[in-house]
Amino acid sequence: VIYDNVQRRLQSDRHATLSLLRIRRDGRLTMAGAHLDVIIWRAHSKRCEFVPTPGTWISVTDDIARATVDHEQRLHPGDVVVLHTDGLSEAMSKSGEQFGQERLAESLAGAAEASALALCDRLLAAATRWSEGVAQADDMTVLVFRYLGPDDKGIVDQT
User: Fold this and answer.
1) pTM of full prediction above 0.70
2) Above 60 in pLDDT, residue 3?
3) How far is CA 132 from CA 29, 51, 90, 108, 122, in A?
C-alpha cells in the first residue's frame, strides 16, 4: 500500500525508514524494520548498547517480505530504551561535525536513572547546545522508555 501510494500515486521514488517495536511484560523487545540503531542503557552494567535494526526501507519495492526480519532483545528491570530521528544524531556543530550517536549515548548514560521525560529533555538539550548557532534542516525527535519489570506495572516511565 505504501509503495503504491508513493511510487504510483505520488510518482515519487522516495523511501522511508520505519521501525516497529513490541514490548512484552516479560521484557522481550521485538523489533522489525530499518531505522537508526536503538540505544539501550543497561541498568546492570551502566553502559549503552547500540542495537542495529536489520530490515528494509519502505516504498523501495512492492514486496518487502524477504527483507523483513524480526530481531529480539531482552530487557531487564531498569533498562532504558531510546529511539530517535536522524535529525538528533546528525545535528551539526559550527565546525561541521555531527552530534553523533556516541555523544547521544554519553548524554544518556550521564543521567540514565532520571525519569524518561528528564532524559528526553537532556538528550534534546545536548544536541541543541551542540548545534547552537547553526540552522538545522531536520527534526529532532526522541522517544524514551524504561522497562520496570514483569510485575503488574510493566512499562510506566515513558515519554
Assistant:
1) yes
2) yes
3) 35, 29, 13, 20, 15
